[in-house]
Amino acid sequence: MGTTQLESVPEPKYWHLRTVLTEALDSEFSVGEILPNERDLAARFGVARATLRQALEQLELEGRLQRRRGVGTTVAPPRVGVAVGTQQHTWPGAAGDVWQTTDCELSVPPASVADALESGRDEPVHTVRRSRVTHGQPVAAELLHIPQSSVPDLSGIDAPSGAARARAVLRELHRLELEGRDSAVELGSARADDAKALDRLPGAPVLVVTTRYIAEGRTAALSVATYRADTCRLTFGDSGGVEIHENPERRAS
């Protein structure tokens, strides 16, 4: 039987180097240890720095390495298991929620968020910012978008911004009966605000979990949670399935 076109393509140099580097990480380096600089690594393995960068980026994506501001590239600890969606009928901010509420603002959201909420593109929505910390390190940042129609009685609350306002918005949201929710997970790259919140460099790999909360037959809230892909392994309850789409829509951001 003849070989296929893919079988005849040689292994990319960076992928071979990734394998060699993996063996070196397992035998020569310990968790948290700083790797030599790119020039020294490229000289050691006899490759161009561009090839080395590709291999390092792949290992960062796989969670074997971390790039840290002012430190350099270090060997990453094992991924932390982070539970997602284990309580299917609980609003954000309910008792037992592991997220920390930090801020809230009323502003016009990106068009993709407005479309998901089925609100007017010029209609302001409440955006609650939340963070998640595991074992003392930030692992996720969330933007929870809530249309004004979901919290109609909020106008009488004297808390214009900040964590107090955010908690007030969530309390009003809890007045609705949660009918269900659905989530989608995608691989992405950290934007500047995500990177700052997660103590990563812009462009670092992240996992984006977009969740729609359904009440009164409509999307009552939309969560866009960004998890560190280098340290997180997302785990889900047994009540949800997995869907594969040929042409997935661009994530709300």
TrEMBL record:
UniProt keyword Glycosyltransferase, yes or no: no
All residue ranges annotated as the HTH gntR-type domain in the record: 11-78
Range of residues in the leader sequence: none
Domain of life: Bacteria
SUPFAM superfamilies: Chorismate lyase-like, Winged helix' DNA-binding domain
InterPro entries noted in UniProt: Bact_HTH_transcr_reg, Chorismate_lyase_/UTRA_dom_sf, Tscrpt_reg_HTH_GntR, UTRA, WH-like_DNA-bd_sf, WH_DNA-bd_sf
Keywords: DNA-binding, Transcription, Transcription regulation
Pfam families: GntR, UTRA
PROSITE patterns: HTH_GNTR
Keyword flag Transferase: no
UniProt protein name: GntR family transcriptional regulator
